[in-house]
C-alpha cells in the first residue's frame, strides 16, 4: 500500500467526497473543522502503519527489528571481537600475565614456542589490530627486558554494521537449506568462526576425494599459518579427518587453505602538478591503490577470479590531489589487465613513477 499518498490534505479530500454536496464544507465550517482533526489523526496512523510494514521485512527493517527477525533463524549480528597476537619476549613468561602497549592492554593466553606466546587484546574492536609499541608488564617480572607484538594472528572486528548484517541475513535466507555437509552448510560454518571473513568451497572430484576450502580473514587479507591451523582444527582436525570429529560431516575430508596474496607491482607515466613531488604524493597513492585492492578482495568470494584493471588503477592514482595524468600503466611488467588465479587476491607491491 502506498502510505505516502495518505497525507492530511488527501484524506480531507476523500472525507469530503463522502459527504452530501448539499452541505457546506468550506474552510471554517463545522464539517471542515471536524474532518481536519480526524484527517491529522489518520495521517499519523498511516505513518505508523508504514513503519510497521517496513519493519515487517528484513530488506527495509531498522536494526532493532532486523535483529528480532533474524533471531527466528538463529542469527544475530557479530559482536566486536578481540585481536590475537603472537608476541616474543627475552624470557619465558607465565600464562595470564598482562601487558600494556600504547593505550591497550593484553593478556597471555597460550605458549607457542620458547619465549613466544599468544596475547589477546583485552579491548574489543579493530583498534586492537594496530601494532603498538613495546610491551610493558603490568606487574613486575623478574628478568624482563623486552617484549614485542610480532604478528597479528586473528584480526579483531567491530560490531557488525546494520547493512552488513542485513546482507548476511538475506544471503542466508535465500541460500539453499544447509544440511548434511552441503555447500551452504560449510559456508555457514566458516562464517561463524571468529576471524573468518570470506571463503570459497570446492567439492570433491573424480581424481581428488577431498573438499577444499580457501578463506580470507575478516580484514580480507591472507590468514597466517597459525590461523589456518586453528580453522582446520575446528572444521576437520588433522589426524582425524573424515571421522566427524570437527564440524565437517562424517566421511567428509576437508582441507583448509589460505587465499594467496599476489604482489602487484605498478609502473606508470605519472604527470605531477607544479608544486608537488612524487615523494609527497606516494603515501596517498598507496592508500588509493590499497583501497581499490581491498574492494577487489571483498568481492573475491563471489567471483570466479579477480581481475585487476588498469583503468581502475589509473583512476585510483589520478584521484590523488596533485596528479594531473596517468598513462602507460603496467601491472607486473605487462600493459594489460592482471587476471589472478581463482584463489588469489591482489596486494600492493612497489609503485614506480616513470618520467
> Counting H and I runs of at least 4 residues, what is the number of helices?
8
* Helix-strand topology string: HHHEEEEEEHHEEHEEHEHEEE
The averaged pLDDT comes out at: 90
Helicity, as a percent range: 25-40%
Secondary-structure class: alpha+beta
Instruction: Kindly report the spatial arrangement of strands forming the biggest sheet.
Output: 5-2-3-4-1-6
Task: Report the C-alpha radius of gyration, rounded.
Answer: 29 Å
Identify low-pLDDT runs.
none
Question: Characteristics of this structure?
Answer:
355 residues; alpha+beta; 4 domains; 6-stranded antiparallel β-sheet; 3-stranded mixed β-sheet; 8 helices
Q: How does this structure look, described?
A:
The chain is of the alpha+beta class and about 350 residues long. The protein has four domains: about 5-55, no CATH class; about 85-155, no CATH class; about 175-260; about 260-355, no CATH class. The chain has helices spanning about 10-15, 30-55, 65-70, 160-175, 185-190, 225-235, 280-300, 310-320; strands at about 85-90, 100, 105-115, 115-120, 135, 145-155, 195-200, 210-215, 255-260, 260-270, 305-310, 325-330, 340, 345-355. The strands form four sheets. A six-stranded antiparallel sheet has the order 5-2-3-4-1-6, covered by helices on one side. About 25% of the residues are buried. The model has no long low-confidence stretch (mean pLDDT about 90).
Write the layout of secondary structure elements.
Blueprint: H1 8-17, H2 30-55, H3 63-71, E1 84-89, E2 98-101, E3 104-113, E4 116-121, E5 136-137, E6 147-154, H4 162-174, H5 183-191, E7 196-202, E8 211-217, H6 225-235, E9 254-258, E10 260-272, H7 278-299, E11 307-308, H8 310-318, E12 323-331, E13 338-339, E14 344-354
Parallel strand pairs: 8-9, 10-14
Antiparallel strand pairs: 1-4, 1-6, 2-3, 2-5, 3-4, 7-8, 10-12, 11-13
Helix pairs in contact: 1-2, 7-8
Amino acid at each position: 500500500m502506498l502510505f505516502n499518498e495518505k497525507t492530511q490534505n488527501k484524506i480531507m479530500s476523500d472525507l469530503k467526497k463522502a459527504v452530501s454536496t448539499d452541505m457546506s464544507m468550506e474552510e471554517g465550517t463545522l464539517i471542515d473543522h471536524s474532518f481536519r482533526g480526524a484527517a491529522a489523526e489518520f495521517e499519523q496512523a498511516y505513518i505508523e502503519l508504514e513503519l510497521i510494514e517496513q519493519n515487517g521485512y528484513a530488506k527495509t527493517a531498522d536494526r532493532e527489528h532486523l535483529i528480532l527477525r533474524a533471531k527466528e533463524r538463529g542469527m544475530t549480528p557479530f559482536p566486536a571481537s578481540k585481536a590475537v597476537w603472537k608476541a616474543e619476549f627475552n624470557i619465558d613468561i607465565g600464562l595470564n600475565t598482562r601487558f600494556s602497549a600504547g593505550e591497550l592492554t593484553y593478556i597471555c593466553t597460550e605458549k607457542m614456542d620458547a619465549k613466544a606466546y599468544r596475547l589477546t587484546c583485552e579491548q574489543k574492536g579493530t583498534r586492537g589490530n594496530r601494532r603498538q609499541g613495546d610491551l610493558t608488564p603490568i606487574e613486575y617480572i623478574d628478568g624482563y627486558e623486552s617484549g614485542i607484538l610480532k604478528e597479528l594472528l586473528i584480526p579483531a572486528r567491530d560490531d557488525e554494521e546494520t547493512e552488513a548484517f542485513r546482507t548476511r541475513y538475506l544471503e542466508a535466507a535465500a541460500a539453499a537449506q544447509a544440511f548434511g555437509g552441503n555447500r551452504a552448510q560449510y559456508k555457514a560454518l566458516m562464517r561463524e568462526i571468529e576471524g573468518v571473513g570470506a571463503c570459497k568451497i570446492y567439492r570433491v572430484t573424480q581424481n581428488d576425494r577431498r573438499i577444499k576450502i580457501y578463506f580470507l580473514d575478516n580484514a580480507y587479507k591472507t590468514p597466517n599459518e597459525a590461523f589456518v591451523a586453528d580453522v582446520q582444527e575446528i572444521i576437520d582436525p588433522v589426524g582425524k579427518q573424515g571421522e566427524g570429529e570437527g564440524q565437517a560431516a562424517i566421511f567428509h575430508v576437508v582441507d583448509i587453505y589460505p587465499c594467496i596474496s599476489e604482489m602487484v607491482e605498478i609502473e606508470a607515466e605519472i604527470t605531477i602538478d607544479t608544486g608537488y613531488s612524487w615523494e609527497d604524493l606516494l603515501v596517498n597513492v598507496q592508500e588509493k591503490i590499497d583501497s581499490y585492492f581491498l574492494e577487489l578482495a571483498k568481492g573475491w568470494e563471489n567471483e570466479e577470479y579477480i581481475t585487476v584493471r588498469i583503468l581502475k588503477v589509473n583512476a585510483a592514482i589520478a584521484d590523488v590531489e596533485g596528479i594531473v595524468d596517468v598513462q602507460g600503466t603496467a601491472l607486473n611488467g605487462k600493459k594489460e589487465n592482471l587476471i589472478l588465479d581463482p584463489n588469489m587476491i591482489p596486494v600492493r607491491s612497489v609503485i614506480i613513477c616513470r618520467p
